[in-house]
Amino acid sequence: MNLSKHWAAQLDDYVIDLAWAPGGAQLAAASAAGPVSLLAAADGAAQHVLAGHEQGTNCLGFAPASGASPVLATGGQDGAVKLWDAASGQHLATAPLGPAWVEHLAWRPRGAAGAERAAVLAAASGRKLGFIGIDGSNRPAKADAPKTIAAVAWGPGGGCVAVAAFGGVRLWDGDDLIVQKELPYANGIQALVWSPDGKWLVSGNQDPSVHLWQPESEFELHMSGYAGKVKHLSFDHTSRWLATSGGRDACVWDCSGAGPANRPCCRTTLRSVRSPSSRTMAFWPRRRRMERCFCGARSAGNRCARP
Question: What are the b/e assignments for 106-139, b being 16+ CB within 10 Å?
């Protein structure tokens, strides 16, 4: 498959994070310098430029669609989370978390129709975990993580959130804000993902490897042999196929039934990307096709492109 550039947008510094608005009509792009650009998905036209965070913006995340104006959350090197009205470009609220950088944001899924949950943002600043409401209110977790938080991922039903640090993963109750379960892992964790059906929780690791848990049954699997740290994970919408990074090969595992143990992985070499650190991947929503994208720095400026 050959991809052609649809449009490109110029930012004031290299792209640090990207986020699509619900419905896909708007793209948020954060530059390392701090400002956040809101771009029209159709043609890349700049709609708003948000001030972001003075010391630098680290991460972005749109709240799930609710029928109201889309809300964008940003986390910065100032230790705070800011909420923005993406339609008007107006700043809505600021929630300080602590002195450490805010590096991880994850919005709770809305839940099934008729049982929608309130919008809550899990945000990590160093060892601190905060639960931030759509109004900017902050309910801190009742205990700090044992080490710096490395990844955050809500379960598909929104009932709990997985929080990774060196040494393992903690599952926090999304309402009571208490630890439900601890899943030990004796190394650093780079990424977390849940399967859409909630059966599997998967970590991409520093050692380098992939570890799979079934939190309900405490069944575990371990997949090693990667060339580098596994920083990117993605399930397809059926929960069967798990795509993993960890080098120039994208390795896709069959997680049906008892999981990928004793099954070969499907390897695809990503030949067009020079640096493994600039590569990420994700399954196309509700399709079996896997997409890959990357953003790269240029000496004369920096661009984000949509294929």
Answer: bbbbbeeeeeebebbbbbbbbbbbbbbebeeebe
Retrieve residue 186's tokens: 């004796």
The alpha carbon of residue 258 and the mean position of all alpha carbons in its chain are separated, in whole angstroms, by 26
Task: Please spell the DSSP secondary structure of 62-128, one letter per residue.
Answer: EPPP-SS--EEEEEETTSEEEEEETTTTEEEEEEE--SS-EEEEEEPP--STTSPPPPEEEEEETTE
Look-up: residue for tokens 């890959």? Answer: 292
What pLDDT digit, counting tens, does each position of 149-167 carry? 999 999 999 999 999 999 9
H or E element at residue 138: strand 138-140
Angle formed at CA 41 by CA 72 and CA 231, multiple of 5 degrees: 65
Q: What is the pTM of this model?
A: 0.86
DSSP track, 166-235: TTEEEEEETTT--EEEEEE-SS-EEEEEE-TTSS-EEEEESSSEEEEEETTTTEEEEEE--SS----EEE
Rounded to 5°, the CA angle 262-265-269 comes to 155
